[in-house]
Amino acid sequence: MLDSYSLHRITSAGPKQPPAAMSRVNLSILTVSAISIFVLVVIYPFSHIPFAPSPLPPSHATSDGETIIRLFQTLGRTTAWESIANISFQGDTFEPEGLVRLGPDRYVISCGEYTEHTQKYPHPPINGTDRTPGKGFAHLMVYNGKGERIADATMTREGDAEYHNGGIDYDGRWIWGTLAQYRPNSTANVYKADPYSLEPRTILRYNDHLGTIVRDSTKNSITALNWGGRNASTWTLGDGARGNCCPQRPKPGSTIRNPSYFIDYQDCKWLGRSELYHGASVMLCSGVATLEHGYSLGGIALVDANSMQPLAEVPIMLRSLHGVRMTQNPVDVSVEDGKLRFYWLPDQHNSTLYVYEAQPESPFEYGGGPSIAT
């Protein structure tokens, strides 16, 4: 049953549910449900199709994480990347921020719909930040392997300050993400969402912008990065991870400065505690850095989530068909037939999932080599 807020929300000029691009492909809304700040739209004809597979796939940490880490050692500037698939995602994806692959036929993306852009202050800072708050809505969307949209969950109310949805991670049971003001030195909250319902549960709140996040299931902790990935804050969750957030804003157990300026991490995946790196907590991150004259440098990295020390870094020069650097925002990864496969979704609004595979027969680059991956 819809409450009065939900009815107002759906009939208002708020987020597009579904956007015009969806109606042009002859899709329509079948069911709408709302819980608190959560509005869910299921797209016909997928009303009886689950959002996630059953059973849920394992996390990287409990499946292919160590293999990903070892295969990453073979990558370099001379790596040949083979295009495996370009999958067009239906409808307006707004700005995709994070990607979780739940097997070959389910993709969950976090994205931001911006109805009023932020504007830089002429004489910053004001209240500790450098721009106006802007306006918008945060979404979680589900797509199948053909790029057909199955569901669109709006996670914020009209007028909410924390509408920026960051990178997301998956721990084998929950999708973990952040909702933040779309400006530095602001505020944020951490949520986890059930893949079967997309309903978010607020875990904690924080007095800074938070972007991408990873979940360490062995230590029951989360690590989230702030604006530009400059600082990494870690919380041990305890029993609070099982329910909704308490009013307090718990201080992180640690906040570590990122020593690398190679790229700004946009989306990360926790790979587990690595044998190769002597038990280090390793995450894989993808991102970009905007350099002089607007040049966009793309890259991927293995990072120690506890110290933020980069363990391995590789530049990525691939671009989308729209000219956007491939590592602009969302990423996930898998191992297929012994090869490292990446999934990128760099373009806004009209998005294509680009699937690339690193070729083992790439030219050898001295200082690395395939022997370490065995």
Summarize the structure.
The protein has three helices and 23 strands. By secondary structure, the protein is mainly beta. The chain has a six-stranded antiparallel β-sheet, with no helix packed on it. Strands 8, 9, 10, 11 and 12 form a five-stranded antiparallel β-sheet that branches.
Task: Outline the structure in words.
With 374 residues, the chain is mainly beta. 6% of the residues lie in helices and 41% in strands. The chain has helices spanning 4-11, 20-24, 65-72; strands spanning 29-35, 38-43, 81-88, 95-101, 107-116, 135-143, 149-154, 164-165, 169-170, 175-180, 188-193, 200-206, 213-216, 221-225, 231-236, 254-257, 264-274, 280-290, 296-304, 310-316, 331-336, 339-344, 352-358. The protein has a six-stranded antiparallel beta sheet with strand order 1-2-7-6-5-4, with no helix packed on it. Strands 8, 9, 10, 11 and 12 form a five-stranded antiparallel beta sheet that branches. A hairpin with a 5-residue loop joins strand 17 (264-274) and strand 18. The longest helix is centred in the N-terminal third of the chain and has 8 residues, at 4-11. The model is unreliable at 1-36 (pLDDT under 50).
